[in-house]
Structures are given as structure tokens and as C-alpha cells.
Amino acid sequence: MHPVPAPEQPGELIARLRAASRTGRPRSLEWRTEQLTRLRSLLQEHTDALAEALFADLHKSRSEAHAAEIGFTVREIDHLLENLEEWLRPQPAAVPGCPAGSTAYVQYDPLGVVLVIAPWNYPVQLLLVPVAGALAAGNTVVAKPSEVAPACSALLARLIPQYLSRDAVAVVEGGVAETTALLAQRFDHIFYTGNGTVGRIVMRAAAEHLTPVTLELGGKSPVFVDRGTNLADTATRLARAKFANAGQTCVAPDYVLTDPDTARGLVAEIARSVRRMFGSEPELARGYGRIVNLHHFDRVVRLLGSGRIVLGGRHDRENRYIAPTVLADVAAESPVMREEIFGPVLPIVEVPGVDQAISFINDRDKPLAVYGFTAREEVRRRLAEETTSGGLVLGMPMAQVLDPGLPFGGVGESGTGSYRGAHSLAAFSHLKPVLDVPMRPTGPVG
Ligand code: NAD
């Protein structure tokens, strides 16, 4: 019998990845392209297994698994592969303040070894899109999937070493103890997605080594629905975004701000949209998700008492099912308005109009997204100029994640830094100026 090798300790693993970084190989375009291509093959060759793991963890339908996780990550990788060579070209810079004859350019330098810590709600996408960005920037990576989505974590831990060089990416599975052990090590960048409490732990640990961080956090993303908007279309788009993944999406619309008349019409239209999407018994619809575990189930059910249930409300602990639910008559200080909901419950808070909606948003933490439905140009402009958030989307909540050209990230309590496409390259690189000053003639600083 062969003895089972002892698992590699975090220090050894990082030393191995750091040594690989120091060879300079990850810097080459060929290495980056090869790793990204292999990562794409992993996704394409194991689509079925990944979809099954997503169903086991979160009851995700095949179409959602493709649109929001597997195909989504493939599209991101394609975008990186198509553009990387051009983005990496050194950018000439004019240096009129330097001695005559000086030339300069600016280049993206890899940072070294990057730690990516992922959450459970999009367990494939939220691990692999940052990993792809870090590889595109020429780094080596320690990837820590979430233990709360165990089927996806185990599958990715098995597949990644089959596709990617062990000197490029190491997967470390586990929960608090394993992540704490990793955070004690020195990394060159930490990319964390999850809640703000752990975000603070990550930032504190990073401070010990002066390691830069990207924190992709959450919060309560409000939706303002203006008087006079087309309520049928608004409800369809709102319900699609809110009830995808049973509301467990960081950029899900958290609550609605609208006037009392619009609220009544909106509730009726949301009920119609939900029936169209999931039938009269969403519990039986394959396309409707489940709450990830009992801890979150109990937490979300407790929030149902914060208002009058005007749609849904049914829940079943054994199946971790909560129906798509709308709450009316919700007070601004009720429990459902004090924490990120992260479940299929949509409270409607009545406000007289846009002035009060803007004040309501600005009185609270800066959200990951602000959403608006309005036919008025003036209201679009005011939402853009008078509110602060990770992103503002008018007309279609969650559309900001569709295009890798847009930077994705929060501000204040909803996070720091951004990524996707070229923004990932910037997040995982150091922008280094290279200045060449001729020895002769000697200029002003000589
Ligand atoms: P989670 O419980 O899976 O935790 C995230 C990661 O942190 C996991 O890998 C976990 O192992 C690790 N972790 C947990 N406790 C830790 C500790 N004490 N010390 C060190 N590491 C620890 O996921 P979650 O936090 O419940 O995720 C949901 C939150 O994430 C929501 O607030 C949501 O809005 C946010 N989120 C943000 C984005 C975004 O892109 N901005 C995306 C998804 C989720």
C-alpha cells in the first residue's frame, strides 16, 4: 500500500505558487492563453456534471446554470482571450517634464500570488470569473470555493487540477478554519466575495501584510418605480431579477420604493408575471430555486412578518422552499428593511415621489445597485447624479452583469474595487510606468 501523502500546508502551497510566479513564465501571453483555454475546456467538457452540482446545491435549473454560471464564465473567458493581447500592449506615455530624449510607457505587471475566496450563491461563476481574471493578469492563484455549496466545491476541487497546471492554480476547500489559515499567509492580492462581516475579517488579515484587496460585498439594492411607467413590463423584469435563484443574488432587487397608487398596480402585475414564469405552484416548477440551507431558510421566513403578504408567503422547511412573495405596507424600520434579504421576498415601501425615494436611499448604506423604472429623463438624471451605488441600472435590474465590458463592484458597505474583462486585468495587475532617460545630454535633473 502507498502511504497517503499529507495534505500540503498553506505555507508550502503558497511557496510553490510563488516560486512558479518567480520563474516569469506566468507573465508570457502564451502561458496566460493556455491556462484560460484550459479553464474554458473544463467548463465545456463538464457542463453536465457542473449543472448537476448546481442543482444539488441550489436547485438551479439547467437554463439558469448555463445562463448565470457555466455559459456566463465561458463568455467571460472568451472576452479575455479575444482582447488580452491588445490590452497587454505597453501604452506609450508622453513625458515632457523629463530630460530631453526620455521615453516612457506604462505596462500591466502581474502581482504574484492571488487568493480568491468565493461564496455559495453562484458557486461556479463567482470562483472562476475572478480566477480567470487573475490568470489573465499573469498571476498564480489559490482558489477557495464556498463550503456552503459542497457539491460545487468538491467538483471544482477535483476538476481544476485535471485541467490547470498545479503551478497555476491550487484549490483549497473548507470553511472558517481553512480560510483563516490561508488569510494568515502573505498574498499579493486578495479577492473576496461574500458578506461584509467576513469582508472586515479579510481586510484586517490583509492589512498585516499590506496586501491589497478587492471586496465584492452585498447589501440592500433598492428599486424606484416612478408614476407613469409601464407596469406590466416593469413587473416582468423586476420579478425575473428578484426571483432568479430564489432571490439569492447579490444584485437582486432588494425592495421597491414607489407611490401608493403605483404600488397597487405593480403588485397585480408582479402576481401575473410570477404565474407566467413559474405557474400557479412555483414549488413544482423546475426553474424555481431553493434556499441554500436551514439557517438561511429560517432567517428569511422570519422576515415574512414585516408586512402584509399580498403574494406568495407559502413555505416548506423540509424542502427549503419559500414561494415568490411580495409584502405591502412595510415600515421603513421593520426587520425586513434592516438586513439584506437574500431570499424571494420583495417588500414595497411607499413614498410620495422621487424626492423622498432619493432621500430614503441616501439615508442608508451605499448599495451595490440602484435600479430605476421611469419614463422621465429628469428622473434618470437625478438618480444618476443624486445617488451613489456600485452601479445604476435603468429599465432592467441585473442587466449590469451581462456585459464584461462594464466594471462590476460596490462602493462603501457594498464593496471596494471592481472586475470583469479589462477591469479584471487592472484589478489583478500593477500599472507600472517604465521610464528611460538618456545619459546624454544631461537635462535639468542631471
Ligand atoms: P459564504 O458563507 O459562502 O462566505 C463567503 C466565503 O467566506 C466562503 O468561502 C467562506 O468559507 C468564507 N468565510 C466565511 N466565514 C469566514 C470567516 N469567519 N473567516 C474567513 N472566511 C470566512 O457566503 P456569504 O457571505 O453568505 O455570501 C452572501 C453574501 O455575499 C451576500 O451579502 C451577498 O450580497 C454577497 N455577494 C456579493 C457578490 C458580489 O459580487 N458583490 C456576489 C455574491 C454574493
Features of the shown structure:
single chain, 446 residues, alpha/beta, Aldehyde Dehydrogenase, Chain A, domain 1, 2 domains, seven-stranded mixed β-sheet, six-stranded mixed β-sheet, 41% helix, 18% strand, binds nicotinamide-adenine-dinucleotide, Ald_DH_C, aldehyde dehydrogenase (NAD+) activity, NAD, Aldehyde dehydrogenase, oxidoreductase
Characterization of the model:
The chain is an alpha/beta fold and 446 residues long. The chain has two domains: 10-217 and 414-434, Aldehyde Dehydrogenase, Chain A, domain 1; 222-401, 3-Layer(aba) Sandwich (Aldehyde Dehydrogenase, Chain A, domain 2), CATH 3.40.309.10. 41% of the residues lie in helices and 18% in strands. The chain is built from 14 helices and 18 strands. The chain has helices at residues 10-22, 29-45, 47-58, 62-88, 125-136, 150-163, 176-183, 196-208, 231-243, 260-278, 294-303, 354-362, 377-386, 421-427; strands at 91-93, 103-110, 113-117, 140-144, 169-171, 189-193, 213-216, 221-225, 253-258, 308-311, 315-316, 321-322, 325-328, 345-350, 369-373, 391-394, 415-416, 429-436. Strands 10-13-14-9-8-15-16 form a seven-stranded mixed β-sheet, sandwiched between helices. A six-stranded mixed β-sheet has the order 5-4-3-6-7-17, sandwiched between helices. Strand 6 (189-193), helix 8 and strand 7 (213-216) form a beta-alpha-beta unit. Helix 3 runs antiparallel to helix 6 and helix 4 (62-88) runs parallel beside helix 5 (125-136). It starts with 9 loop residues before the first helix and ends in a 10-residue tail after the last strand. The model has no long low-confidence stretch (mean pLDDT 96). The site of nicotinamide-adenine-dinucleotide has 28 residues, from helix 7 and helix 8. One of its GO terms (molecular function) is aldehyde dehydrogenase (NAD+) activity. InterPro entries: Ald_DH/histidinol_DH, Ald_DH_C, Ald_DH_CS_CYS, Ald_DH_CS_GLU, Ald_DH_N, Aldehyde_DH_dom, Aldehyde_DH_NAD(P). Belongs to the aldehyde dehydrogenase family.
